[in-house]
Specification:
Elements: E1 3-10, H1 17-22, E2 25-32, E3 35-43, H2 44-53, E4 58-63, E5 66-77, E6 84-91, E7 98-107, H3 111-114, E8 118-121, E9 125-130, E10 139-142, E11 152-154, E12 165-166, E13 173-178, H4 180-204
Parallel strand pairs: 1-4, 2-6, 7-10
Antiparallel strand pairs: 1-3, 2-3, 4-5, 5-6, 7-9, 8-13, 9-12, 11-13
Amino acid sequence: MSKNTFTAKKRDNSQNPRQLRRNGKIPATLYGKDSESLSLEIDAREFTSAYKLDKNAIFAIKIGKDSFDSIVKKVQTKNVKDDILNVEFQKIRSDAAIKMVIPVEITGESPAVKAGGNLITSLTEIEVECLPKDIPSEIKIDISSIENLDESITIGDVKYPAGVKPTGSEDTVVLRISSPEAEVSEEGAAEEVSEAAAAEEKGEE
């Protein structure tokens, strides 16, 4: 877990967000379970640099003499340039567990893949629950032990860091190794469904 500290200012809601962004600032909101939400403005370059390094970092936001530990709950971006338009922060407590969506990092080389199998990834992120101090940057899944085709790894099979537990069903498949024949069969079935749907639409015209 990493931690970033930066200064924010309370924002007048009558201010135009576009003007703020032209001045190198980003509109932001800080909210908590038992406190009033605050409208803020934060430095765009400072936040963007820290967020790109670790999206699950803890952000200590200094507002005047006060400081609030928080996590990023939502980032609104432009579709084209991926510029950040708005950020929502959630206050956290060091002694209270929180839910976080953590990216999956696949490591190792599977003998089944070497033998011609195809790695099919169903989940690229896993939601977990943990204390703020235990938030991982990623969840590593080693596939070097998968020797047979059609084997899979589920949420329940994953080895999580200490203090971290998944929130989803343990039977949910994260990844699997399929045989080339199975993938061709699945693609053919998908094409048949698509063609049938197209024919049905044409018949209704």
